[in-house]
Input
Amino acid sequence: EKAVNLKKDLAEMQEWMTQAEEEYLEKDFEYKSPEELENAVEEMKRAKEDVLQKEVRVKILKDNIKMLAAKVPSSGQDLATELNVVLENYQLLCNRIRGKCHTLEEVWSCWIELLQYLDLETAWLNNLEERVQMTENLPEKLDAVNDALESLESVLRHPADNRTQIRELGQTLIDGGILDDIISEKLEAFNARYEELSHLAVSRQIALEQQLQTMRETDHMLQVLQENLVELDRHLTSYLTDRVDAFQLPQEAQ
Output
């Protein structure tokens, strides 16, 4: 009777493993929204816990069959053979579910990381847009133009590492068919805004550099002119002081 019960327990265990494999490993999942992906991750975590909890039952079966084999070798031998098959299938099921759970957790982590990088780069784009707007309607002063240019250039020196991460993470998920529509839409919007603002910022940078160069050249010319006027004023003053007749002076002094 005990052998019959153990045989029944082994059959039930094998049936449960078959159902678990069909439910957790053979279903085709399509992750088209973050909610679907998150739900799948949570489901696989529960599946892993459920499967690992059966380890106690498997150990009890194993111990009982060993005890029976010690008492009734003939019955125990047949059960031991069936037990080995169940043990192999159980170990395989555990490994496959662990693997799938780990993969889904990695995918979810990849999605969260992508969102974090997008948030960082979006904040940078907002800052860039603000700096570009600050270059408009500047006062015609050398310091103001120079400060605006330096401020814009400091933002433009932003490293490209985050954008590289966004591209690689997004492509990895899209290649796996995971959230591909949502990610493609996000990347398209981000890249379009990045290209537009970067082009505008570089154009403003070039314009400010040209404006600054022109203002410096003008400032230099005015300085030279001022120095010449001071020198001319000194000569004229000396002529007046010496009561020199204008017709005795060089043409430019007259």
User: Anything to note?
Assistant: The chain has one domain: 1-210. Residues 1-210 form a domain with the Methane Monooxygenase Hydroxylase; Chain G, domain 1 fold (CATH 1.20.58.60).
